[in-house]
């Protein structure tokens, strides 16, 4: 017998089932570590490094959403932050733990769905997302915003790196409706500056800019085709 939709959570879970299985996909994605994937290299995002160099961010409690093989979580830990790093993929977290252990860093890696986290309200100074948000289907955006509002302290920072719509990395130009018609995000949704401002209208915009491109031998990660954005939770 098909499950009846009796509440909002039933609806969200049913829409989740329309999309691909993210756990299986991401475990396969991270299983082959030698692939020429730019963000497989152990380098922090250039915007993140800039936030600390310019004293915008300071040591505190950090929640990273979609932490992958740990490159940004490691940088946060190196800045004396206490880090909870969440990812669906056990394969990516194995890799991240190996990297952190090699540097003697204590990071709390959590395997799980970001929408099922049991977190204390107003606990985090920073929520960081580099490449998770553009893989989230439109019906989960409100869940994502609720997570940010719950996790962050008043005046806490939310930083985001995501695909540019129609950019060099292929940020999909699908409308929200077409996502469900095709039952696919086409590799990840792209956004415009206007769309980001609309989605995160409940936050103060500090900065939205294209990511700076970095050379192969640079110690920071940076590619064209990505937005970097920094928001602040409004004080109550």
UniProtKB/TrEMBL annotation:
Superkingdom, taxonomy of origin: Bacteria
GO MF: methyltransferase activity
Pfam families for the chain: Methyltransf_25 (PF13649)
InterPro entries registered for this protein in UniProt: CFA/CMAS (IPR050723), Methyltransf_25 (IPR041698), SAM-dependent_MTases_sf (IPR029063)
Keyword set, alphabetical order: Methyltransferase, Transferase
One GO biological process term: methylation
Transmembrane segments: none
Methyltransferase domain location: 62-156
Name the UniProt record assigns to this protein: Class I SAM-dependent methyltransferase
Species annotation: Jeotgalibacillus salarius
